[in-house]
């Protein structure tokens, strides 16, 4: 299989969506804006079929990521996420992924409202890997 992101052969991951034949390498997933879910059944999705946030929220002008303090996009996207519980905590995908790896499943929660259950469920669905420790 050829990777649809880099074009090289050896792509072992195929989009889970029925009828989609896009394949990619795991390291190419971020560049191709693919989502890999690390819970229950290991599933991966290409950029076209990936799950997206259904939260009705728009950041105000100049809103910054709570973790790196850099500005976020003007809407939710692959790279910009919002807490589904409070809808006020905005962050970059790479920042919240780093937070998840450092915190682990027992300490990973929204940095603003401290919600754990709704927050972790949404982050799992959106492909944020949350290790046990």
TrEMBL record:
This is G2E3 ligase. It holds the Pfam family zf-HC5HC2H. InterPro entries: EPHD (IPR034732), PHD-type_Zinc_Finger (IPR051188), Zinc_finger_PHD-type_CS (IPR019786), Znf_FYVE_PHD (IPR011011), Znf_PHD (IPR001965), Znf_RING (IPR001841), Znf_RING/FYVE/PHD (IPR013083). Keywords: Ligase, Metal-binding, Zinc, Zinc-finger. One of its GO terms (cellular component) is nucleus. Coiled coil: none annotated. It comes from the Eukaryota. GO terms for molecular function: ligase activity; zinc ion binding. Residues 1-50 form the PHD-type domain. Residues 65-114 form the RING-type domain.
